[in-house]
Structures are given as structure tokens and as C-alpha cells.
Write a structure and sequence with these properties.
By secondary structure, this protein is α+β, with helices and mostly antiparallel strands. The protein is built from 17 helices and 26 strands. A hairpin with a 2-residue loop joins strand 11 and strand 12. Helix 3 crosses helix 4, helix 6 packs antiparallel against helix 8 and helix 13 runs antiparallel to helix 14. It binds adenosine monophosphate (AMP).
Length: 621
């Protein structure tokens, strides 16, 4: 059984397979490799998928869905603008993920739409291969986050496909050009499609691929060229009826393709020259330059460091775009392969390699990076980073935590994605509670939390209490994901706010520590006030009250005073603590239980970090 490679695109999708050592795209009965990613629902009957659904879309606007990749793994709140542009009505009763209202049937999700596209490609593969395909490698944009990747996997499962792995689109393009055989190098993949633009910088090191950086614009592509070209002939396009505008845009699109090969074309009888077209699209193409510079800067590279540039996407057929890319990177881009097919071809090559009997290459190790840091919220609403941004995947990290309150039987784990210091400024990916902890004094339980991001970029978090073995795991299927724009916005914010974030974090850490000291002291005084001379008691209380007055401060300027007072309190109460410990140890040696002694010792943090009590979790700022 041959494995297949699938490019599940925003505009078009393709399926490819390696036959006799060569990767090729499978064609439909009309001889086309491209399947428009468009689905029209027909009530209880099977949906119409592909070219027909696309061509007839204007007649069935309420039940035809295209460009739904933009909505995969996202919440309605994250894509209202896209819904407005594509005129989809979302089901507001479901805030966690997108559901489109659809005429003649219940709501449909982007995952279901994608699964219809995948089913159609699978049928194509069955017909061409005379049998069921093996597993599938499916490509996703490099910036897709956990939720978007998970949604893609769900769609494949719904379509009855076994996903061998998700592969980043730029990596697939590099594989298609055989760049993996060079062993080392740095490559730029410039992907300009119909509606989206992505640029990725890849590093190949000893046969291992990493995505060093990605940038782009989710609303930039050939459609913008069509509008710019149409506006040359029909300047008041926006004022025309929908049907008129569609006709003019279709004519402009055809003229644009013609202009890739000749110097003049006509739109609605009016001639347009290639020079006029190039002048019209220059500002659009210039926007891709900014993204390329950003990606290079993120990767810490200059154009001279790039060993090869690969073109992907139908719009890179435009000669002006090619010239522009060549100028930007100072070298001619690779363009031998069909830019529409290159991603599917690379996916098929990777799928073939995964059969283990490939003639193409030995096993190829592919690594990608996570776009934003992953971490956990800890006491005080601070983020403890587990996996920093741009870490190559697969990757795992673990840390040990303990409880904050005596007798705490559960801890709330709040998983976050982002690069800001405070939890509230990052994106929440999910929460879960580890329950059934033994009733122990604060600071005694040892809870090991593991983060594991697999090769497909899916995050699994597990927590285990080490003494009792109580454990729980979740696969993070976040209710929504981050868009590329959001990732950029969050990164910008984390850079802009780096200084104040660190100050806030330090203040909160100081406050949490002060709270811990005060709580332990209160407990000790309640139990053993009698062990203190009056003047020692007065000295301790004076410092404690000064600290108590400040410990809820939100003014970063108070941090130093909080830290100083905490140290002072430690110092003035050191004798008291020492006396209590000695007394308790004597008790312990005389056979009292460790729990009771632990509680009486007022043990707090043992150097590991403290997570919050679930009961208190909702009360945090
Ligand atoms: P993709 O999303 O990669 O399938 O790219 C589709 C975009 O490529 C659409 O905007 C097409 O109009 C554009 N396109 C396809 N062929 C050509 C061509 N020969 N010249 C210019 N643009 C093209």
C-alpha cells in the first residue's frame, strides 16, 4: 500500500504519491491536479466538492464554504473579520470553536469541511492506485499552533485517513527540491498563493530540518493582484453589484495569468500592459518584502546567509514577483517545479520515506519549531516557561512543583502559550486539575509536570504526584488557536513590555514570598507564642505588620522594601524558628507521625515552586 502526501490548502488541495521512485500529483478525470478546497452542502445528500462547488458558489452562498482553513482550530472571537469577508454566519451559541450556519442542514465546522476535501482526495487516490492508500502525510503552515494542527488531524480521521505525520509546508517544498540531500544549508521558502503569503527560513543541519522563523500575511495574495488589475479598467469596482464585480474579477484573473506569459492582455475588451500591471501590484509585492526581512531578522540571518530560495504558490508565476524575490535574496529562486504542486510533491516524498522501503532517501529526520513559548501559571499569576519559543520539536520538559496550602488535595494546572511574564497577558490553552493528592503540609507533595510536544506539534501535559503516583494527563486540544497575526502581535507586545513585565513579575514573586513567610509565621505564633519573650514577640510582630501593610502592593517601587522586610522578618524570627524546629525534632524522634510533625514544622516551599490552590484559582487577579 502506497503512502500518500496531501497538501490541504486554503484555496486548492492536492494529493501526490511516489511511483517508480518519482513523486507525482494524482489528477482528476478532467486532468487537473488541483482540487478547489470548496464544499457545498446538499441537505441530507452527499456534498459537492471541488471545481463545481467553486464555479456554482455564487448561486448557493448560504451553503458553499471555501477558505475554511482560515477557521480551523480557532474560536469565533478570533475570526470575526474573516467571517465578515467570506460572508459566513457563525453559530454564536458555540464560543469554543467555529461552526458555520448552513442552509438546509445543521451547522458545519471547518474540520468537517476539510474532511470532505480530504475524502475527495482519498477517493482520487483509491481510483489512481487501484486500492486503499496506506497512511498520509498532510502539510500545514509552519505557524499552525497546537489547536490548528489538532483540527487538521481530526479532519483526516473523519475522512478515514491515517495520519503518518503533519509536515510543515515550507519543509515539504524544500524536500521536493531535494534540498535535504545537501545535508547542510539555510533556505528561504517564499509562498504566495491566492489569499495568503508566508515566508519561512529553514535550517538544514546534518540532515535535520528546522524552521528558524516564519512571517507572513494571512490576507495577501493573488486575489489582491486581481483587484488591483481590475481597478485599472473598472475604478469603481466597489460600487458595482456582486455579480458585476465577480465577472470583472474573473476577467482580471484570466488577464493576470496571460500577463505572466505575454506583454498585453485584455479585460472586458480593454487592453492592459504588463508594465501597467506591475506598477499596480508593486505596493502589494512590497508588503512581502517587509515579512521576508522580519523572518530573516528573527532567524538572525541576512540575505547573504541564504543558500537557496524556493518558490511556492500560484502567484509566484508572476514574473515581477520572481524578479522581486531574486533581488531581495540576491539569487535566482528555484522554480523548476510547478509552484502549485511543490508542497504536495514534498509531502509524498516524505510519506514514501516513512514506508521504510523508499528508494528516495534514508530516514529523514524533520524538526520544526514551536511558534510561542509554552508554560504554566504559578502562584501570583506568573508564567513559568517550560518550553521557550522557537524550540525544535519534538521536545519535552519537566519541572517539579509543590502545594501552597496545608492539606491541599488538588492543584489547578493552567497551560499557557505566549511570551509575556504574566499569565493574563498570554493565551490560555487549557486547564486541568490534579486531584486526590494526599493531605500533607504545604510544600511536601512533589508534583512533577511534564510537557511533551510531539513531532506533529501537539502538546501533551501530564502531572504526577511522586509519593503516591496519582497522575493525570491531557492532550491539549485548545478551544482556539493563535493566528499568525496574533502570534506576531503577542511577540511584539512581549518585546514592548519586556521591562514592565519583568518588574511586575519580580514584584509578584516578592509578594508571594512575603505571603508565604507571613502565613507560616502566623501559624507558628498561634501554636507557640508561649515560647517567645515579650520583647522578641514585639520585634517580630513589628516587622511582620510592616510587611503585611505592603505585601498586597501593586506598585513595583515597593518591591525592594518587600524583599528587605521579608529578609528582616526571616532574621528576627530565626531564633524562634530554630527553637521550634529543635522542639519538634525531639517530638518526631519520640515517634510522632511525619504528617503532624511536618505541619507543626510549618514547612513551606522546599525550593520547588508553588502552584495555586484550585479553590483560590478563580480569585486571582
Ligand atoms: P494557490 O493558492 O497557490 O493555488 O495560488 C493561486 C493563485 O495563483 C491565484 O491567485 C491564481 O490567480 C494565481 N495564479 C495561478 N497561475 C498563475 C499564473 N500563470 N500567473 C499569475 N498568477 C497565477
Amino acid at each position: 500500500m502506497a503512502n500518500i502526501g496531501i497538501d490541504l490548502g486554503t484555496t486548492n488541495s492536492l494529493v501526490a504519491v511516489v511511483m517508480s521512485g518519482k513523486a507525482r500529483c494524482l489528477l482528476d478525470e478532467g486532468g487537473s491536479a488541483l482540487l478547489p478546497s470548496v464544499v457545498r452542502y446538499e441537505g441530507p445528500n452527499p456534498p459537492v466538492v471541488g471545481r463545481v462547488a467553486l464555479d456554482e458558489a455564487p448561486q448557493f452562498p448560504g451553503r458553499t464554504f471555501s477558505s475554511t482553513k482560515r477557521f480551523m482550530g480557532r474560536a469565533p472571537a478570533d475570526c470575526r473579520e474573516d467571517a465578515r469577508i467570506f460572508r459566513y454566519r457563525m453559530d454564536d451559541a458555540e464560543p469554543r470553536f467555529v461552526r458555520f450556519l448552513c442552509e438546509g442542514r445543521g451547522p458545519v465546522t471547518p474540520v468537517e469541511v476539510a474532511s470532505e476535501v480530504l475524502k475527495t482526495l482519498k477517493i482520487r487516490a483509491v481510483e489512481c492506485l487501484f486500492g486503499e492508500p496506506g497512511g498520509a502525510v498532510i502539510t500545514v503552515p509552519a505557524y499552525f499552533d497546537d489547536a490548528q494542527r489538532q483540527a487538521t488531524k481530526d479532519a483526516a480521521r473523519l475522512a478515514g485517513l491515517e495520519v503518518l505525520r503533519l509536515l510543515n509546508e515550507p519543509t515539504a517544498a524544500a524536500i521536493a527540491y531535494g534540498l535535504d540531500r545537501r545535508k547542510d544549508g539555510r533556505f528561504a521558502v517564499y509562498d504566495l498563493g491566492g489569499g495568503t503569503f508566508d515566508v519561512s527560513i529553514l535550517d538544514l543541519n546534518d540532515g535535520i530540518f528546522q524552521v528558524l522563523a516564519t512571517a507572513g500575511d494571512t490576507h495577501l495574495g493573488g486575489d489582491d493582484f486581481d483587484r488591483a488589475l481590475a481597478a485599472l479598467v473598472v475604478p469603481d469596482l466597489a460600487a458595482r453589484t456582486d455579480a458585476e464585480a465577480r465577472t470583472v474579477l474573473a476577467a482580471a484573473e484570466a488577464a493576470k495569468r496571460e500577463l505572466s506569459a505575454s506583454d498585453v492582455a485584455t479585460i472586458a475588451g480593454a487592453p492592459v500592459t504588463r508594465a501597467a500591471f506591475e506598477a499596480a501590484i508593486a505596493p502589494i509585492v512590497a508588503r512581502t518584502t517587509a515579512a521576508c526581512r522580519q523572518a530573516l531578522a528573527d532567524a538572525g540571518l541576512t540575505p547573504a546567509d541564504i543558500d537557496a530560495v524556493v518558490l511556492v504558490g500560484g502567484s509566484t508565476r508572476v514574473p515581477y514577483v520572481r524578479r522581486h524575490v531574486a533581488e531581495l535574496f540576491g539569487r535566482e529562486p528555484f522554480s523548476d517545479l510547478n509552484p502549485d504542486e511543490v508542497v504536495a510533491i514534498g509531502a509524498a516524498m516524505q510519506a514514501d520515506i516513512l514506508t521504510g522501503t523508499s528508494q528516495l532517501s534514508d530516514d529523514l529526520l524533520l524538526l520544526d519549531v514551536i511558534p510561542l513559548s509554552l508554560g504554566l501559571e504559578v502562584m501570583g499569576g506568573i508564567v513559568e516557561k517550560f518550553i521557550p519559543r522557537c524550540s525544535p520539536i519534538p521536545i519535552s520538559a519537566s519541572q517539579t512543583f509543590t502545594t501552597h496550602a496545608d492539606g491541599q488535595t488538588g492543584i489547578d494546572l493552567h497551560i499557557l502559550q505566549g511570551d509575556r511574564e504574566l499569565a493574563r497577558d498570554n493565551r490560555s490553552l487549557g486547564r486541568f486539575t490534579l486531584k486526590g493528592l494526599p493531605r500533607l503540609p504545604a510544600g511536601i507533595p512533589r508534583i512533577k509536570v511534564d510537557f511533551l510536544v510531539d513531532a506533529d506539534g501537539i502538546l501533551r501535559v501530564s502531572a504526577r504526584e511522586e509519593f503516591t503516583g496519582v497522575e493525570t494527563t491531557i492532550e491539549v486540544k485548545p478551544s482556539y488557536g493563535l493566528t499568525e497575526d496574533e502570534i506576531e502581535a503577542m511577540l511584539e507586545a512581549s518585546i514592548d513590555n519586556a521591562e514592565t513585565d519583568v518588574e511586575d513579575r519580580m514584584l509578584i514573586e516578592a509578594r508571594v514570598e512575603a505571603e508565604g513567610i507571613l502565613a507560616a509565621l502566623d501559624k507558628a505564633l498561634a501554636a507557640d507564642r508561649a515560647m517567645l519573650m515579650d520583647e522578641d514577640h514585639a520585634a517580630i510582630v513589628a516587622v511582620a505588620e510592616a510587611l503585611r501593610a505592603l505585601h498586597a502592593s501593586t506598585d513595583p517601587a515597593d518591591r525592594k522594601r518587600i524583599v528587605d522586610l521579608s529578609h528582616e522578618l526571616d532574621a528576627v524570627s530565626a531564633g524562634f524558628a530554630q527553637a521550634r524546629i529543635e522542639r519538634d525534632l525531639t517530638l518526631a524522634l519520640s515517634g510522632r507521625s511525619a504528617d503532624t510533625v511536618g505541619a507543626e514544622l510549618g514547612l513551606t516551599n522546599d525550593g520547588t515552586r508553588v502552584t495555586q490552590d484550585p479553590e483560590k484559582a478563580h480569585a486571582r487577579p
